[in-house]
Write a structure and sequence with these properties.
Blueprint (H helix, E strand, L loop, with lengths): L7 E5 L4 H12 L3 E6 L2 H13 L3 E6 L5 H15 L4 E4 L16 H29 L2 E6 L12 H21 L4 E8 L3 H5 L4 H12 L3 H10 L9 H12 L9 E5 L7
Parallel strand pairs: 1-2, 1-4, 2-3, 4-5, 5-6, 6-7
The structure holds NADP nicotinamide-adenine-dinucleotide phosphate.
Length: 266
């Protein structure tokens, strides 16, 4: 008996570093995966890995900022799988970090805020209807340590991450009575993700350039600022998502899983 036997999970941004890692980990635990994201070929790579390991995955290209497309997809998933048990929004978009406030444009400030709050609203709304119908479900979101940083240079990221954490807390209140748990995962920067083509490479590069170092050197410096003197791995993020989505975390909702290796402490 596996942890997620008979469970169905939808992952938005499943072609990405975190989305792909969590999809593989959920499939390893027996979940049937519905992979959604922008680029079909990247989703197909994850689906092929899951199938090669004996799991089940269906990949669908969609824009997670398009409410109608996401609703149609969620309805289709629920019809095929008999419901939706777990959802993760792991979409990621390159945005400006490191620019001082005086030089930051309104557009660059707004972009991550509108993108992340819009997509998390759309995907949560689409899956929550189906979870409510069955009286159970888990919605996972992602933020960054920017949610709690004073800056300088993180204005858009800071507000976007804080907003996703606030949305997750509020959604937990909206949906708890229907048996739906909502938890935000807040990892520090993951070096493997940047190396694997995550949008974070494009986010970090201008900051590293400004400091006259490589992205790898900048992340090594960030590792030195954590209590554990290292940064999180994709496996750690994926396995935390497994735990949070499982019955072992059945009493947890409306909270943030802080995977900052002790960069932030409560
Ligand atoms: N990586 C880190 O170090 C880190 C740390 C803390 C938090 N996070 C958060 O975790 C999330 C995922 O990060 P990641 O490193 O896994 O990013 P990633 O590797 O760049 O993956 C993001 C995925 O989202 C997809 N996507 C972007 N816009 C989309 C849209 N409108 N509709 C559907 N799919 C869309 C991308 O599609 P394409 O395949 O077409 O590009 C990509 O596959 C982000 O929210 C990020 O802030 C990441």
């Amino acid at each position: 008996m596996l942890l997620f036997d008979d469970k169905c999970a939808v992952i938005y941004g499943a072609g990405g570093a975190i989305g792909g890692a969590v999809a593989r980990a959920f499939a390893r635990e027996g979940a049937k995966l519905f992979l959604a994201g922008r680029t079909q070929s990247r989703l197909d790579t994850v689906a092929a890995d899951i199938a090669a390991a004996g799991g089940l995955a269906e990949a669908t290209a969609l824009d997670a900022l398009d409410a109608s497309a996401v609703e149609r997809h969620a309805d289709d998933v629920a019809r095929k799988a008999g419901g939706i048990d777990i959802a993760l929004n792991a979409i990621g978009v390159a945005h400006v970090q490191g620019t001082p406030f005086a030089d930051l444009s309104l557009e660059d400030y707004e972009f991550p805020i509108t993108t992340y709050t819009r997509t998390n609203f759309i995907t949560a709304k689409a899956v929550a209807r189906h979870m409510a119908a069955q009286g159970s479900g888990v919605i996972l979101t992602l933020s960054t340590p920017g949610a709690r940083l004073p800056g300088p240079g993180y204005m858009g990221n800071c507000v976007a991450s804080a907003a996703v954490e606030a949305m997750s807390r509020h959604l937990a209140g909206e949906l708890g009575a229907q048996g739906i748990r909502v938890i935000c995962i807040r990892p520090h920067a993951i070096p493997e993700a940047a190396a694997a083509g995550s949008h974070t490479q494009a986010v970090f590069k201008p900051m590293a350039d400004r400091a006259g170092v490589t992205v790898e050197q900048m992340l090594a410096g960030a590792a030195g600022g954590t209590l554990l003197k290292r940064l999180p791995t994709l496996d750690e993020v994926a396995n935390t998502a497994v735990f949070l989505a499982s019955g072992y975390a059945g009493a947890m909702t409306g909270t943030v899983a802080n995977l900052s290796c002790g960069f932030l402490v409560d």
